[in-house]
């Protein structure tokens, strides 16, 4: 039993160690934490002088200075938390996939896709008389059928993603 607890404690220490080391060595984290504690102390003084919880709550609800001190304390604690966690990952990949999906949806929309593609081709090629795009021979394809199959596949993927997200949220 003692060996299991020691192993569990060692695992916990291994997972906490990077955060602890960063907290001990990071000046930004200490400064943010110190500022948050200072703001909390400034707020605690006037609140502790009130008679009861109701008076303290009334003061927080009506006093602008107390609200600003509380907001500052929360902001400083949030900043300290972000500093302790380290750099945040960006969402470049997700944003690029989202942008590509929006562009594909606009170009292959069954109702306005044809007009959008024509407008885009006119913008790119221009309205010059030197060599209009209508003279080029393009293979005949059925864009409507392709658009419907693309929309159907996208709807299926979206419903699968939504059900997966619901399952994950339910598990959490």
Task: Give structural notes.
With 172 residues, the chain is mainly alpha-helical. 80% of the residues lie in helices and 0% in strands. It has helices spanning 2-25, 27-48, 52-62, 64-85, 92-107, 113-125, 143-171.
Give a quick precis of the structure.
The protein has 172 residues and is mainly α. 80% of the residues lie in helices and 0% in strands.
Tag the structure with descriptive keywords.
172 residues, 2 domains, 80% helix, 7 helices, mainly alpha, elongated
Portion in beta strands: under 5%
Total DSSP helices: 7
Mean pLDDT: 75
**Poorly predicted spans:** none
Q: Would you count the extended β strands for me? A: 0
Total domains, how many?
2
Largest sheet features: none
Following the backbone from N to C, one meets helices and strands in this order, namely HHHHHHH
Rg is: 30 Å
Described by the principal axes of the CA atoms, the overall outline is: elongated
Q: Based on helices, strands and strand pairing, what is the structural class?
A: mainly alpha
Helix content: over 70%
Q: Termini, distance in Å?
A: 29 Å
Describe how the helices and strands are arranged.
Elements: H1 2-25, H2 27-48, H3 52-62, H4 64-85, H5 92-107, H6 113-125, H7 143-171
């Amino acid at each position: 039993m003692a060996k299991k607890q020691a192993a569990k404690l060692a695992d916990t220490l291994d997972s906490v160690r990077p955060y602890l080391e960063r907290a001990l060595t990071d000046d930004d984290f200490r400064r943010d934490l110190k500022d948050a504690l200072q703001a909390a102390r400034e707020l605690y003084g006037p609140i502790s002088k009130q008679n009861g919880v109701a008076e303290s709550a009334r003061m927080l609800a009506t006093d602008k200075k107390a609200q600003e001190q509380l907001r500052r304390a929360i902001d400083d604690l949030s900043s300290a938390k972000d500093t302790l966690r380290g750099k945040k990952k960006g969402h470049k990949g997700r944003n690029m996939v989202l942008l590509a999906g929006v562009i594909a949806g606009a170009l292959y929309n069954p109702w306005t896709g044809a007009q959008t593609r024509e407008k885009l081709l006119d913008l790119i090629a221009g309205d010059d008389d030197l060599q209009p795009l209508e003279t080029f021979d393009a293979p005949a394809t059925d864009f409507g059928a392709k658009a419907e199959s693309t929309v159907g596949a996208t709807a299926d993927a979206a419903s699968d993603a939504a059900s997966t997200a619901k399952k994950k949220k339910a598990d959490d």
